């Protein structure tokens, strides 16, 4: 989903600019773009602001398959869902700000963007800093291991028992999951990018790479030919409670009107599994990943 995991994981353009379900991002802003000092509160109603100006600015971290660039286009689970949602709200353009994952929450609090579109996991720690939409997806955790799984690593408890080294993404919930499973801090290695974790595994610098099953299947698929495989999914535990990775959009605490309008349109999608999979199935999301109606952000924020 420790200090780093607080910010963890881990979303429109004029219709004439959209082709094949991809979003073009004119003037995509880099992480070094102008920042503003903020307290997490909007100076005006953000929903009214984005409707008036005709575009919404999103923060994303380039994590596949949640939100990333493909050429000049912004693609992935979150941009695709959010394209549909903001279009229904009358906002036809999305502008992206690419930044490190652990800079997403500080960035939205500093008014660098209007929403975080990165498939970020909903955790009690993050709920103290920002507000989330209702869940957009639900998934489990898995391990990327060497072909044949020579150390028989089936979950994080097995990693701890074997004294193995596990890789995680910086500011991702898997670090907390690993620590809770008993993996020693010296055996947890953090990486800035998914590809860095896979490369470290292949080079023998780590024994496993922990991430959502969705992410790891995607990573293995785009690295065909590499001697790696994804383990069956499992649910890690925190404080004895099984953890599912449920993610959503992120807003400033003052932006309840924008959050509520977003949720209204999101519900129309998550209540229709056929529409859900037609929108983001190509990114590895299936009906299994549709959040159940009983799973709420309020319950996830409570832990």
Automatic annotation (TrEMBL):
GO terms for molecular function: ectoine binding. Residues 55-287 form the Solute-binding protein family 3/N-terminal domain. It comes from the Bacteria. Keywords: Signal. Gene3D superfamilies: Periplasmic binding protein-like II. Residues 1-30 form the signal peptide. Pfam families: SBP_bac_3. GO terms for biological process: ectoine transmembrane transport. PANTHER family: ARGININE-BINDING EXTRACELLULAR PROTEIN ARTP, MEMBRANE-BOUND LYTIC MUREIN TRANSGLYCOSYLASE F. This is ABC transporter substrate-binding protein. It comes from Actinocatenispora comari.
């Amino acid at each position: 989903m420790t200090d780093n995991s607080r910010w963890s994981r881990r979303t429109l353009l004029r219709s004439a600019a959209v082709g094949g379900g991809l979003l073009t991002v004119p003037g995509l802003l880099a992480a070094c773009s102008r920042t503003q000092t903020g307290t997490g509160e909007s100076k005006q109603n953000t929903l009214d602001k984005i409707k008036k100006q005709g575009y919404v600015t999103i923060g994303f971290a380039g994590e596949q398959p949640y939100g990333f660039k493909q050429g000049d286009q912004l693609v992935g689970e979150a941009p695709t869902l959010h394209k549909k949602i903001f279009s229904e709200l009358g906002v036809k353009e999305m502008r992206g700000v690419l930044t490190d994952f652990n800079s997403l929450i500080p960035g939205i609090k500093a008014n660098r963007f209007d929403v975080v579109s990165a498939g970020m996991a909903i955790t009690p720690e993050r709920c103290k800093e920002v507000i989330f939409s209702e869940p957009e997806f639900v998934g489990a955790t898995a391990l990327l291991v060497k072909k044949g799984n020579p150390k028989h690593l089936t979950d994080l408890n097995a990693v701890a028992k074997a004294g193995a080294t596990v890789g995680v993404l910086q500011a991702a919930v898997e670090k907390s999951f690993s620590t809770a499973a008993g993996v020693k801090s010296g055996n947890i290695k953090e990486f800035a990018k998914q590809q860095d974790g896979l490369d470290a595994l292949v080079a023998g610098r780590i024994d496993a790479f922990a991430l959502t099953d969705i992410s790891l299947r995607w990573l293995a698929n785009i690295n065909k030919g590499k001697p790696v495989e994804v383990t069956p999914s499992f649910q890690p535990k925190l404080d004895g409670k099984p953890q599912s990775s449920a993610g959503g959009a992120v807003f400033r605490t003052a932006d309840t009107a924008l959050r509520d309008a977003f949720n209204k349109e999101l519900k129309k999608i998550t209540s229709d599994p056929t529409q859900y999979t037609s929108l983001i199935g190509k990114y590895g999301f299936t009906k299994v990943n549709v959040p159940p109606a009983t799973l709420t952000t309020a319950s996830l924020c409570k832990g």
